[in-house]
Structure formats: C-alpha cells, structure tokens
Design a protein that fits this description.
Blueprint: H1 6-16, E1 22-23, E2 29-30, H2 34-43, H3 51-67, E3 73-77, E4 83-89, E5 98-103, E6 109-114, E7 123-127, E8 130-139, E9 146-153, E10 159-167, H4 175-178, E11 183-188, H5 204-214, E12 221-224, E13 228-229, E14 245-249, H6 266-273, H7 275-286, H8 292-313, H9 320-352, H10 372-380, H11 382-408, E15 414-419, H12 428-432, E16 441-445, E17 455-459, H13 471-483, E18 488-491, E19 499-504, E20 513-516, H14 519-532, E21 536-539, H15 547-553, E22 559-563, E23 568-569, E24 574-575, E25 585-588, H16 597-602, H17 604-611, H18 618-641, H19 661-672, E26 678-682, H20 683-686, H21 720-733
Parallel strand pairs: 3-10, 11-12, 11-26, 12-15, 15-18, 18-21, 21-22, 22-25, 25-26
Antiparallel strand pairs: 1-2, 4-8, 5-6, 5-9, 7-8, 9-10, 13-14, 16-17, 16-19, 19-20, 23-24
Helix pairs in contact: 1-2, 1-3, 5-11, 6-8, 9-11, 13-14, 19-21
Length: 735
C-alpha cells in the first residue's frame, strides 16, 4: 500500500461514516491509524491501496447522489410539517413536468406532477455526461404511517422508485403511562427456571407458571433473556447475545409435552414415559447448571417424532392445523425458508463431519444460498427443511400462549423481550445475506468504566445504509420479529442506532473506530414498529454514549436503562436520589453482565475476577475493592437520606458481610420510589442467588449462561420474602 494523501484518506473516511477521531468515556481523544482506516474502508467496499484509489472512491461517493433521481429510502415523521424530496435531474428532464405516483401501504394510490424551472434549482453538479440540477419538491401530505412506494417518471423515459417510510412522532406507551402511573416487573433468565416437570431447562410452560405466581403480586412486566436462535449443532454455545438469527426463536425453550402433536403421537409418549428417558430427565433437572447438549438431545429426539406425526395426522389430510402451518410458512416467505434451509444444511454437514461447525467450512457451492447445488439439495430434502419451519411454528405458538397468559393475568405490559446487537459470524442470517455484512470486522466497545480493556463481541456488523440497500428492510424485519408477542422490547446497545465501534480482524479492541448509522431514520422505524406492535421500547444506553443519543431517547419515548450502581453524582460520588431519576427510564439494581446484588455487596465478583486472574495487576484489584467499599458507604448514605434504614445503621464498609433481607428490601424500595416509569427486579436477587449470570471477558473460565435458580417454581408460593418484597415495591410504586 502506498498512500501519501492523508487528507484525502480522512475525507474518504468521513464520506463513509468512519470516525477519524473519537473521545472515550474519560474525554481522551483517540485517532485510528492509517492501517485501521484502510481496513475499515475495505470492509465497506472501498479498498485503498494508492492515492489514486482514494480520489476515485471520493468521486464515486460525491457523484452518487447526483446520479440517481431520488434517494432509494426516505424516512419522514408524521409530525413533520411537510414532506420534502430532493430530486436530481438533467436540464432536459426538468424542462417538462415530472410525474409521480404514490402507492400507499394500505392500498391507496395517488398521483401528480411537479413543474420545475432550471432557475429554481438548489444546486448543480457536473458529471461526465453533463450537468445535473438539484430540486427540492413537496409531496402532498401522507398522513398514514407505514411503508409507501413512490414512483417517478421523467419525459425522457427515466424512472426511479423510493420507499417512503412515514413514522409516528414517538414510540408506543401503555395507556397507564399517559396518566403518570408506574409499572414494575421481574427480569429472569428463562433457561434458569427450575421445576419438577421441565426437561432440565426453563421452558415456555415454566414461564406461564411464573407469570401465574408473579402477576397476582402486582407484577406488570416479565423480562426474559434474548430468545434468538442459537446453534443447534453446538448446544453449548449458549450466549443469547451471540445468536445465529435474531429474527427466529430458539426451540430449546419448547415445552415439549404441551405441543398439540404430543397428544397425537403414541410413539413419543411411550419414549418419554420409558424408564431410561425419565432417568435422563431426572438427571437433567438435578444438574446445578443447564446441560444444553443433554437437554437438546432429549428434546430433538422427541421433536422429530412429533413432526412426523404432524405430517401423517395433519399435512397428509390438509387439516385445519395443517392450514395454520401452511399460513405460517407463507407469512415467513423467503426469510423463513432460507433460515430453515440453513438449519437443515448445517445439521447435514455436521452429521457427516463433526468438525464442520461453521457454514464457512461447507463445500464452497453450499456457502452460496443461491447456487445451483444448494437449490438442488433443497429439492431433495424438503422434509428436512420443513422440520425446522415446523419448529419455528410451534415455538411461535407457545410464545403466543405466554403473551396470552400475561393478558389473562391483567398485566399492563407483559413479556419484555431483549434484542441482541448483532448476529454471530457463523450465523444463519450472515449465510442468507452475506452482502449485508462487513467482512473481517467485529463490533464491540472501546475501553470504558465497565471494561478497562474494551470489548470485542466478534459480531460482524451490518453495513450502514450508505452501502447496504437492504439495511432498512432488514432492520424493520428484525424489530418486527422481536416485538412479536411482547409488550416491551429492550434494544441492547441503543447507541448502535447512531454508531457502532468496528474492530478490524487481528486488531486489539483499542485499535478500532466508530462507523456512523442514520440515528433519526432508525429511531423513526423503531417508533413505527413500536406503535404498530403496541410495544414499549427500552434503550440500553450504558458505556460511551454520545450526547445525540441521550438527547434523542426521551422525545422518542424510548426508556433509558438506568442501573443503580452507575447512577451517581460523579463529582461527589453520591448516588442519585430517587427523585433525580428521569421519568422516561427503566431502573434496575443490575444486569446479566453484573454481579447479583448479594455478590456485589460482599465483593464476590471481585473475588471471582481475582481468582481467574482477570485484573491486570494487584493494584487494580485493590482499587476495585476501595471503590466498592465507597459504593457501599454511599448506598447506605442514600438509604438514610430517604429514611429507608435507621440513621445509626452501621456502615461496615471495610468488612463486607452478607446482604440481609431488610437491606435488600430497602434497596428495592429505593429504586421503586424513583421517577422511572418502569422498575425491574432481578429474580436472582429475590432468591438470594450469588452466582453471576455472565462474566464478561470469559468463555471457558466461567459457566456463563448456565446457572439455575436456587428455588424451584413449585416452591415460589411458599417463599415468604417474595411477597414481602412485592408488598414493599407496591407501596412505593402505587402511590
């Protein structure tokens, strides 16, 4: 590579949305080097090996907007005073009226024309073919929110289309919020639920049982971990934040014995009732950690029987149940088919060679979903593909039943789902549409207070709309899939709507840079899907958060995600008072990446990190213990100010002891008293669990995403502290 034109390189980065400098959480300026810039440009399809490459790409980018009559996608807000479009036309084209037709999503069609005068152009650009003029034109008001299609024709026969997305002014809020009422709920890891009837992992049947217990206590919302599809051929890859598909559900959460086809399948019933199978289930239930491989092996064996029974009992006779499945296939269309095809292919190649764990290891022709050999394989293996469509169908039906259970119990919000920031690099979504992703890069976070070394989640980023024509469609599809059967959705790393931190392959986390995304456009689509699905939106805004994102959340009615230990008056170290929490927020004592409240109080997380040698030096460990002691002192001081503990309560800051139930309830009352519209309580805290759900920075060193709750569902009603905490929270939230 030979590049001397550093100014040109920076200009090209700016044009592609690559930050040539950014400030970290402490305000320190970071500027990526030439090689990092070059690698990120290459990932965006603008390879640079010389100064000539830079100038050629710059000219391509500068002229692109002038070479198309209208932008392919335009997002408006319904509360915008006017809908203005920008057209680029040659002098000959604008000499005659420009005709347009607007095909509204609801089926309506309107048409008209614009008469333009060259002297009224707002700009001009010279292409090799000659001059192009820019005009700003007004489109008659489109009041209906939705996805509309605009067609434009010029006198010389040129045609252009644009998707006009008309979004509401803000996201959906439950009716109770408009009356300033507050809600509270319980967040849980679905896999962690214990019961005497599940198959070693919490399932949708357990979730309904949990709702039946918690809703009468005043719970309005139940939060769950991401339900995204993971990797069936590698069940131990258990992180729900590194999925194979964010648009499809994980069938490991199926309550197998509640599937309608189970009642029709004598073969499956006989197997499940057999002594050997029951012994396996007892072992899986008794395991202290989820044995994903054992659980999935047991479920898969029965699910395959149920699918065959479904074929013989329903598909062969075109029953009403068969019609419902065919409708599900039709609605899922190409996206569902490609996902099921991927699952079937991965199962096929892994069965032939257990070392084949990624689609990048398949024979080359099968790495292309549109290849002739892939199509021929699909024709020969219809049932194998349909099996995975069937799994999605029955999983969707059981999730719908969970939603119905929430409504039956009168919950004001219901299920609160979680959307991961991206798909894993061997994901089904990546295989289905590889052109949407930036190869050779991973997204993460630069060093901050949460992670001093930064984070690389190794999730390939979606290319921004500037180089990805299908970005908006994919984004809307993913939102729609995750708002389905839900009353609220948490968007992990909401800052990703404005920028994502890209790390080139083989680079340390500190050597990446941010790549920009169109924040206002994406917030508009979030608002549109939120209103259509009547789904509250929470934005996880922890870490390095740009001011633009902070300021945009409240006007769009996206709830900020506030964790107690981070809500401080940093200049003095005190914790914010409940009255200082914003109304447009969800507050909680912790998250899946943080220690439970009991472990936090006793410094067990610090002990764990020290044991695993995760601190760079002994001095770092000592510093963390000093900060934790200060936090305990400040939390007690905050509780005293709110008169939630006696003023003479011992600080005990230097000698951490177990968190007693009275203090636990006082901390929950403190958050319940806050202005935040929603408060969540972690189920692990309710039951005094000390084991952390996930320890960032570890893979094999710690059993992430596997720990089970210490109390079985059947014992919840007798657990007196559950009701005590609920009563305390209700006394604060219902005022």
């Amino acid at each position: 590579m030979f590049v001397n034109d550093h100014a040109g390189l920076d200009a090209l980065c700016d044009a592609c949305g690559i930050a040539t400098g950014y400030h970290d959480i402490s305000g320190t300026l970071h500027q990526p080097g030439i090689e990092v810039k070059r690698l990120l440009l290459e990932a965006l399809d603008y390879p640079v090996n010389s100064d000539e490459d830079i100038q050629r790409h710059l000219e391509t980018l500068r002229s692109r907007e002038w070479r198309r009559i209208v932008a392919p996608v335009i997002v408006f807000r319904r509360n915008d005073s006017s809908l203005w479009l920008r057209l680029s036309l040659t002098p000959a084209q604008c000499a005659e009226p420009i005709s347009w037709e607007l095909h509204e999503e609801g089926g309506g069609c309107r048409h008209g024309s614009w008469e333009l005068h060259p002297d009224h152009a707002s700009g001009e650009y010279w292409l090799d073919e000659g001059p192009v003029k820019r005009f700003d034109v007004e489109l008659p008001d489109v009041s209906a929110i939705g996805y509309h299609q605009l067609e434009i024709k010029t006198v010389d026969g040129a045609e252009a289309t644009s998707c006009l997305i008309v979004a509401p002014g803000a996201c959906y809020e439950p009716p109770a919020f408009e009356q300033q009422q507050k809600a509270w709920g319980v967040s849980l890891q679905l896999y962690s639920l214990r019961s005497g009837r599940n198959w070693g992992i919490g399932d949708f049947g357990d979730l309904c049982s949990a709702i039946d217990i918690l809703a009468p206590l005043g719970v309005d919302v139940i939060g769950v971990n991401p339900l995204h599809t993971l990797f069936a051929h590698q069940p131990e890859k258990a992180s729900p934040y590194s999925p194979s598909s964010r648009d499809h559900l994980n069938p490991v959460y199926l309550d197998v014995e509640k599937i309608e086809d189970y009642a029709d399948c004598g073969q499956a019933q006989a197997l499940v009732k057999s002594e050997g199978f029951q012994a396996t289930l007892r072992t899986l239930r008794e395991d202290e950690s989820v044995n994903y491989s054992g659980v999935w092996a047991a479920k898969l064996q029965v699910l395959e029987m149920l699918y065959q029974s479904f074929r013989h009992e329903h598909l062969d006779f075109n029953s009403e149940r068969a019609a419902a499945f065919r409708q599900f296939q039709h609605d899922g269309a190409e996206d569902l088919f490609r996902f099921a095809l991927f699952e079937a292919l991965q199962q096929y190649f892994h069965a032939a060679d257990s070392r084949c764990t990624r689609w990048q290891q398949w024979p080359r022709d099968y790495q292309d979903p549109d290849s002739r050999l892939t199509a021929e394989w699909a024709e020969r293996n219809v049932e194998a593909i349909e099996f995975h469509q069937y799994l999605q169908w029955i999983t969707d039906r059981q999730l719908a039943a969970v939603d119905a259970c929430c409504r039956r119990n009168g919950m004001s919000i219901g299920i609160y789902r979680d959307l991961a920031v991206g798909n894993e690099k061997s994901a089904a979504e990546y295989w289905a549409e590889p052109e949407l992703y930036a190869p050779g890069t991973g997204i993460g976070a630069p060093p901050d207070d949460f992670s001093s070394d930064g984070q690389n989640w190794e999730l390939p980023p979606l290319k921004p709309p500037s180089v990805n024509a299908n970005f908006y469609h994919q984004f809307a599809t993913t939102l729609r899939a995750n708002m389905r059967h839900a009353g609220a959705l948490r968007i992990d790393h909401i800052m990703g709507l404005m920028r994502l931190y890209w790390i080139p392959r083989d680079c340390s986390t500190g050597l990446g840079s941010y790549v920009a995304y169109p924040l206002q456009d994406l917030l508009g689509i979030v608002a549109l899907e939120s209103q259509r699905n009547r789904c509250l939106v929470v934005g996880e805004d922890l870490g390095t958060v740009p001011d633009e994102v902070r300021y945009a959340l409240e006007p769009n009615k996206v709830l900020s995600y506030r964790i107690l230990c981070f809500e401080k008056n940093w200049h003095e170290g005190s914790f914010k008072a409940p009255a200082e929490y914003p109304r447009c927020a969800l507050c909680v004592t912790g998250s899946h990446d943080l220690p439970t409240l009991g472990a936090y109080w006793q410094e067990l997380d610090i002990d764990l990190r020290a044991r695993l040698n995760l601190y760079p030096s002994p001095e770092d460990e000592t510093r963390q213990r000093m900060l934790r002691a200060q936090d305990r002192h400040e939390i007690l001081a905050a509780l005293k100010r709110e008169q939630l503990v006696p003023v003479d309560t011992s600080d005990d800051a230097d000698r951490p002891s177990a968190l007693g139930s009275d203090l636990l309830i006082s901390i929950q009352r403190y958050l319940a008293r806050s202005n935040a519209a929603v408060m969540m309580v972690q189920l692990e805290d309710l039951f005094g669990q000390q084991q952390q759900i996930n320890l960032p920075g570890t893979i094999d060193e710690y059993p992430n995403w596997r720990s089970k709750l210490p109390v079985a569902l059947e014992d919840w009603p007798a657990y007196s502290e559950l009701e005590s905490i609920a009563q305390a929270i209700n006394s604060e939230r219902r005022v």
